[in-house]
Specification:
homodimer, mainly alpha, Multidrug-efflux Transporter Regulator, Chain: A, Domain 2, 3 domains, 11 helices, 67% helix, elongated, disordered N terminus, DNA-binding
Chain lengths: 247, 247
DNA sequence: CTTGACCTTGACGCAGCGTCAACCTTTACC
DNA sequence: GGTAAAGGTTGACGCTGCGTCAAGGTCAAG
């Protein structure tokens, strides 16, 4: 008959359905054997059909016991299937670009973070331990952008960094209007980065904002990005001042 | 900080990774607290990245421990993602047509099986108890066909049934060449139906083939399909003879 | 010194069975 | 009638990746 393995599995399935109350045997013989009559088999038929459509057993139970409108339940299920498909699409995209990047010679997320664009801001969090996940989220966000979107972000960040560098070099005070305006721009820019810890108002939290400035001044790699150590300290002071006033 | 729930979850995650040996704390304080240094955090970063790409933890472990070529592993993963997407496509299709059918007034698989086309052959199995699953498989197969494919099947089946009826009515012997040729056609036709229990040769098993003929003669609904009770008995005899000779 | 926040180690639960293990019935054959 | 094979029964663990209590130690703050 060629059904050996399959047969055993089906048996276990029937037992399982019995255990969870989805399909009871119509009777149980004195020898303990389960028996299924016509009605039970019809029900089993429907269960198997719905299962092949991907529904979960609880959903099937509700549906078969008439507690939910069949059509509505199936529509909901359809919707969820479509969502899943979208999710897979995004995954496939991510994996593909990752592979492409690797073929381009880049190691798996090794050093690519310090590429001038500081989407590595999240590194501050990593150092705080709880943010490794946020970091990865941030990276995956970056990874999922199109080339143009990335270009746009890069330009925006570079412009900001250049403006910071210029302001620091010009000798203006870090708590003056010009520097504070830059701080405000920086704040808004951060607000646009997913994964940023944010307050109820939607912007970055005060701790995060201040800590970030601190890091710019401390970490040479970031400092270089903002025009050197002196400039980075200027950025830090301006950000701290801004945070004190507005956050 | 607004990270409460998330934080707790992440903690559990780290414990889990420690348990399965994916990521050990770099050190454990005398108070039992886990600590993760730079290296460990980098590893965590990579783990989280790969996880977001949908890889399983064992796969991630192999990959990070350098036991597998990164690119090859990701390609394999990509392939599996694409398969999954295809599977979802088929599911979505099935659910959609099921909904359409229901809107057309049909109850969930209620009586549609006796519509002249006997893809309900699998009912024989249902009666034998072990075949309910095969039956559902058969139905889903039918459900997944395009309209033209169905038409083709229907025509083929109707032609076969008509030829059987004619042969039975003409009074030729069930073990004669003409009837045996019909049995051979029937055999080939069955071989094309997924879910059919089949022997190593690829065709239906002897038991199945004979049992089916038995059912045609026994069940009025099938008998009608082959030209009535007398004709159905003729079919059964021809099939049994064929089975005895060739199976 | 107490309170509360944060850490620790179990252990159960989730979906849907697959897969032993240990044991009883029925069937088939000599 | 005896015996072995086939097929049934009830546990119970395993898988994925943690979420979610529970019970209890540690640490910083008031």
């Amino acid at each position: 008959m060629d059904w050996a393995i399959h047969d055993i599995a089906r048996l276990r399935t029937l037992r399982h359905y019995g255990q969870i109350g989805l399909l009871e045997p119509s009777s149980i013989g004195s020898n303990g054997y389960r028996r299924y009559d016509e009605r039970a088999l019809t029900r089993l038929q429907r269960i198997l059909l719905l299962r092949e459509l991907g529904l979960g057993l609880p959903a099937i139970a509700e549906l078969l016991d008439g507690q939910r409108d069949d059509a509505r339940a199936l529509l909901a299920h359809l919707h969820w299937l479509q969502q899943e498909k979208l999710r897979l699409d995004r995954l496939i995209n991510s994996v593909e670009t990752t592979i492409l990047k690797m073929e381009g010679g880049e190691q798996l997320m090794a050093e690519e973070m310090f590429d001038g664009f500081d989407h590595t801001v999240h590194r501050a969090e990593v150092e705080e331990r709880w943010g490794a996940e946020a970091y990865a989220r941030g990276d995956s966000w970056w990874r999922s952008m199109t080339a143009e979107e990335r270009d746009e972000w890069m330009t925006r960040q570079k412009q900001l960094a250049a403006d910071w560098a210029a302001a620091a070099a010009s000798g203006i005070p870090s708590d003056g209007d010009a520097a504070q305006a830059l701080a405000a721009r920086h704040f808004a820019w951060l607000a646009g980065i997913p994964g940023t810890p944010r307050s109820a108002a939607g912007g970055p939290t005060k701790e995060y904002f201040v800590g970030l400035g601190e890091m710019y001044a401390t970490d040479d790699r970031f400092a270089a990005n903002y025009g050197g150590a002196d400039a980075a300290r200027f950025v830090r002071d301006a950000m701290a001042h801004y945070a004190g006033l507005h956050l």
